[in-house]
Amino acid sequence: MAVSKFETKDLVSGCIFVAAGAYFALESLTYEIGTAFRMGPGFMPLMLGTALSLLGLAIAANGWNKPDSEEAPVWPWRGLILIIGVIVFFGATIRGLGFVPVVLVSSFVAAMSSRLNSPVFAAMLAVTLTVMCTLIFVVGLGMSVPWFGPWLPL
């Protein structure tokens, strides 16, 4: 097996930071930039995007000429599939099931995506998150989504 002359994690994460920062910096150019004393709506995204890109370059440079110190990790397929499934489930069923059941199921499945969580902990977390999200978003902010949807015979 050939030894690489750079640390893969640093190089990849640096490139992701550079790409994200460059995207936000370039998108900010469609807004008025202004000056440091009279900032326009594009000023902060430009500055933060540039800073993120520079940080990404520093991280990538830090990984140069350092060999990979460990084997490539095993992909967490369980977590990846469950989290993507939860996002699709939430978007597809929020109107039909309503806010409370969708947040309850979504938070339980998201908690179970980690092998470190037990079903009891995931259930407690799901109930707590459901109560908090309902109080914050539906009651407090007045989000116009029914607590329970038309698909449930309540």
- How would you spell out the order of helices and strands? HHHHH
Total of domains? 2
What percentage of amino acids are in beta strands? under 5%
Question: Could you give a short account of the major beta sheet?
Answer: none
State the total count of DSSP E strands: 0
Structural class: mainly alpha
- Uncertain stretches of 5 or more adjacent residues: none
Number of helices: 5
Q: How much helicity do the residues have?
A: 55-70%
Query: Which word captures the global form?
Result: flat
Alpha-carbon distance between the two ends = 62 Å
Rg, alpha carbons: 22 Å
Q: So what's the oligomer here?
A: single chain
Average residue pLDDT? 91
Explained architecture:
Helix content is 64%, strand content 0%. The protein is mainly alpha-helical.
Short structural description:
With 154 residues, the chain is mostly helical. The chain has helices spanning 8-28, 43-62, 77-97, 99-112, 119-140.
Give the key terms:
154 residues, mainly alpha, 2 domains, flat
Task: Chart the SSEs and their pairings.
Layout: H1 8-28, H2 43-62, H3 77-97, H4 99-112, H5 119-140
